[in-house]
Amino acid sequence: MDYTFQFSEVFAELPYLLGGAVVTLEIAFISFWGGAVIGLGGALAKVYGGPALKKTASTYVTALTNTPALVQIFLLYYALPDAGILLGSMTAVLIGLVLNAGAYLTEIIRAGIVSVRPSEMDAGVTLGMSRLQLVRYVMLPHTAKTIYAPLSNFFVWLVLGSSLAALFGVEELTGRAINVSTANLRSIETFAVVAVIYVVLTVMASASLALAGRLMFRVRAKVF
Amino acid sequence: MPHLEIVSLSSRYGSEEVLKEVSLAADQGEVLSVIGPSGSGKSTLLRVLIGLTPPSGGEVFIAGERVDYSSRRSLKGLRGKMSIVFQEYNLFQNMTVMRNVTVAPIKIKKRPREQVERQAEALLAKVGMAHKQDAYPEELSGGQQQRVAIARALATNPEILLFDEVTAALDPERVNEVLETIRGLTNEGITMIIVSHEMAFVREVSTRVAMMDEGRLVECGPPAQIFDAPRQSRTREFVSSILRH
After folding, report:
1. Interface test with A, best of B93, B152, B166 (most A CBs within 10 A)
2. Residue B180 predicted with pLDDT over 60
3. Does A135 touch chain B if contact means CB atoms closer than 8 Å?
4. ipTM
5. Would you call B40 an interface residue with chain A, using a CB distance cutoff of 8 Å?
6. Which candidate from A126, A129, A142 shows the least CB-CB separation from B94?
7. Are A129 and B84 in contact (CB < 8 Å)?
């Protein structure tokens, strides 16, 4: 094989690619926080809800965690128009990822809530804490500490998983890489550079999350 | 008037009655110990008294005032007067020793932070834990955690202090340090209800001892009566079986 690597053509497009990395992070952030709100609601429904609420939350989690995120977004983007609902590609991707993240985060947050030791709650009650104070001083810190590591992992998964947005024409990092490689015909170099950018993104995300965890919850997380 | 008066107190767990019309009274500053086999309702008695388990019947009076366990306001008042130390310490794992002791007085009783911290330092010194105020519970031994739990209970300035088998989860060599701490508190005018299997300790510190079995009060009297001349055969049987070991 006689192939000469030519990275200069990719480096020339670096600002464009880094712009895509920003979009990637935006998708991950919105999916994460949107999913976290749904996840908190779902977890509370599963732990404290009545039978109907529990059933609804369980069905949602089962349905969304047993089908690929890609298929869910396909449904939103290609099937909903048949029902008269037309979504933009970015909107469909964000709704799909938020719903998908919500299902996984329901389970992660639920595990955190049930891990609160009843004995600590007893202590809080006997010291005179109100319900709100029990949540603030006993439940939340404990839950946050317990779910911190799985949440961090899930955020990294979202950074990488957001690449499927490229299939719908969203110009995030992978989408822009496809554009660049189509124009310069340097696929190996383009996707190698993009892979390195993904590594940098996830290492940065892991490191900042690990630092935040150590400062806030005394969690010792490993980045590597 | 007794400081703490328990009248025909009952409690159910599902359909099972685990506390059956127990009546007891303790004067101000008295150390009343409750003994009996496992499952006799001793811990349930304490949990009902502090409002963790609802009573199914009977009444409790503190200094003549009836406690209404169905009223949040009454329960709040109760917890301003009564504290409990649990078997498993139940410290808040996410808080330092100092914060475990100060969180209730500062955040619930809204007392000034500096004053509370000064009191906490004195309390931690009293239980021999002043040097560990910045440590987290997971860094402490069971005995140390239990001494912090005692300081935490004292920080709310309770009139009545409940001890629920506070040495049962400890290694044998840690038992004495906790008993020593409780012994040091017995002359401070706090009314104490102690559930314990440490018979020598019970005999030494108690003004009276109550024997419970199958949710009922069997007998109550001075330690000399319970340990040397029990009036009920069940007490005799239990005490002799414990002292044999």
Report:
1. B93
2. yes
3. no
4. 0.90
5. no
6. A142
7. no
Alpha carbon of B66 to those of A95, B6, B21, B174, B204: distances in Å? Answer: 57, 10, 17, 38, 31
B88 touching chain A per CB within 8 A: yes
Which single residue is written with the structure tokens 């389970």? A107
In this predicted structure, what is the pLDDT of residue A144? 85
Measured between beta carbons, the chain A residues lying within 8 angstroms of B107 are: 129, 133, 137
Contact A138 B86 (CB under 8 A): no
Residues 6+ apart with CB under 8 A from B182: B150, B163, B166, B192, B194, B201, B205
Nearest CA in chain A to B154: A127
Q: Which CATH architecture has domain A8-217?
A: Orthogonal Bundle (1.10)
* pLDDT per residue as tens digits for the range A57-99: 999 999 999 999 999 999 999 999 898 999 999 999 999 999 9
| pLDDT digits 0-9 by tens, A121-144 | 999 999 999 988 998 899 888 888
Structure confidence at residue A218 (pLDDT)? 66
Q: Which residues pair with B211 in a beta bridge?
A: B35, B219
Quick check: A105 pLDDT over 60?
yes
Q: How far is A113 from chain B (nearest CA, A)?
A: 15
Task: Please report, for chain A, the start and end positions of each structural domain, with discontinuous segments joined by +.
Answer: 8-217
Q: Is residue A221 pLDDT above 60, yes or no?
A: no
Confidence grade of residue A208 (pLDDT, cut at 50, 70, 90):
confident
CA distance A155 to A29: 8
Measured in whole angstroms, the distance separating CA B131 from the mean position of its chain's CA atoms is 25
Q: Which domains does chain B have, with CATH numbers?
A: 4-244 (3.40.50.300)
Taking an 8 Å cut-off on Cβ atoms, the answer to whether A127 and B50 are in contact is no
Amino acid residing at B242: I
Q: Taking all residues of chain A, what is their mean pLDDT, rounded to a whole number?
A: 91
- Chain A residue with minimum CA distance to B99: A137
Angle between helices A173-184 and A14-48 (to 10 degrees): 150
